[in-house]
Design goal:
The chain is mainly β. Helix content is 0%, strand content 50%. The protein contains no helices and 11 strands. Strands 2, 4, 5, 6, 9, 10 and 11 form a 7-stranded mixed beta sheet that branches. A 4-stranded antiparallel beta sheet has the order 1-3-8-7, with no helix packed on it. The protein is globular, with a radius of gyration of 13 Å.
Length: 116
């Protein structure tokens, strides 16, 4: 059974930083592309970042234009974890953030609120 647990969300002021973590169990983590998505209030879930598995020939990392240069995705295949470092946060980044394994399995999400 695949289990995905996100953590690290919270309330932060504009310009601040947060680091989200996602731990995955129940599959061979290193074989899967890892995604971060978010869902803002009143909006559909949107893709934020991807870090491809090392077994692919695709470009290693990609970001949505709205977060490129501010967010950094990384993974630790030894610990079955993926991270999202979020810097220079803006109120528009307020959302529930979801970790996904291959866009097949999803966590419950962690809430990020950016406000003064």
């Amino acid at each position: 059974q695949v289990r995905i647990v996100e953590s690290g969300g919270g309330l932060v002021q504009p310009g601040g930083s947060l680091r989200l973590s996602c731990e995955v169990t129940g599959l061979v983590f290193s074989e899967y592309h890892m995604f971060w998505y978010r869902q803002r209030p009143g909006s559909e879930r949107e893709w934020v970042a991807v870090k491809f598995s090392d077994v692919t020939s695709y470009s290693d990392i990609d970001y949505a234009d709205s977060v490129r240069g501010r967010f950094t995705i990384s993974r630790d295949d030894d610990k079955n974890m993926v991270f999202l470092q979020m810097n220079n946060l803006e109120p528009e980044d307020t959302a529930r953030y979801y970790c996904s394994v291959g866009r097949t399995w999803w966590g419950q999400g962690t809430q990020v609120t950016v406000a003064s």
